[in-house]
TrEMBL record:
Protein name: ABC transporter ATP-binding protein
Domain ABC transporter, chain residue ranges per copy: 20-261
Gene Ontology terms for molecular function: ATP binding
Organism classification: Bacteria, Bacillati, Actinomycetota, Actinomycetes, Propionibacteriales
Keyword Nucleotide-binding in record: yes
Organism for this UniProt entry: Ammonicoccus fulvus
Record keywords, A-Z: ATP-binding, Nucleotide-binding, Transport
Amino acid sequence: MTEQTSNTQHSTTGAHESLLRLEGVSLHYGSLKAVDDVTFEVEKGARHALIGPNGAGKSTLFSVIGGAQKATAGRIFFNGEDITETGESARARGGLVRTFQHSSLFLGMTVLDNVALAVEGVHGTPWRFFPNPISDRKIRARTMEKLEQVGLAGRAHELCGNLSHGERRQLEVGLVLACDPTMVLFDEPAAGMSAAETHRFMNLIESLPSEVTVLIVEHDLDLVFRLAQSVSVLAAGRLIAHGTPEEVRANEDVKVAYLGESEGAEPLFYSADAGAGVEKSGVNDAS
Ligand SMILES: Nc1ncnc2c1ncn2[C@@H]1O[C@H](COP(=O)(O)OP(=O)(O)OP(=O)(O)O)[C@@H](O)[C@H]1O
């Protein structure tokens, strides 16, 4: 992927091709095992969720995958290449892109200009003395395409600072799409969203091109079980389950891990055939 990437190659086997593979990944803070010997893979084109009770290690593992934090043990492979030692921005250039946070939006600029700058960073002249991204027709067309994809074309000329919380999150996805990602890492996208915003955002993630692989860390289990085709469950830093949403719902270790978090909490999971499939206990309900 980059000059920092080692030559180690990971061969994939089986019918489905692995895009991201973690092998024995750990991140220990002294004696605290925030992430402990985690092995799993995400297939190309998958909608994969990483869930777990509070303090399970989700954010830490997410940072390790994105490259913001270094694993203390284990290897990470992306597209067959060992990226364990590859930095965050080099991973992003290689297609493994994390959603931008609100802080990366320019609130005093229009929605159009925000995405145009990101598009220009990827497709345009890397740096100009007097940047005027909208003057470039190709960049403008590409920018509008990204805004259409995230449902913000009608807000193109609005100042970013005037957008609602949900719209800003849509815009963050637009910035990510501007990077032409192979895989997008979504970090709790539904946090702080209203039910309507969450619904819109779910539709947006579902409408992403099928060649874009998605890994999502999310507390809102309604969203997870609607969106994900495969789920990995962490508890106390360890991977305790990995499989389809149905398999994970039925897993006894998963039920115990969630219920153990809050005594007297309502059961977190209905059986798979009980309508919506998931009952929120409030334990991990960020909505
Ligand atoms: N920088 C740090 N130094 C020491 N311990 C940390 C650090 N960051 C996280 N931890 C600890 O690592 C463990 C995993 O934390 P992490 O935030 O990854 O869990 P999480 O599953 O994302 O939790 P939540 O759902 O509450 O956000 C926790 O015990 C946390 O206190």
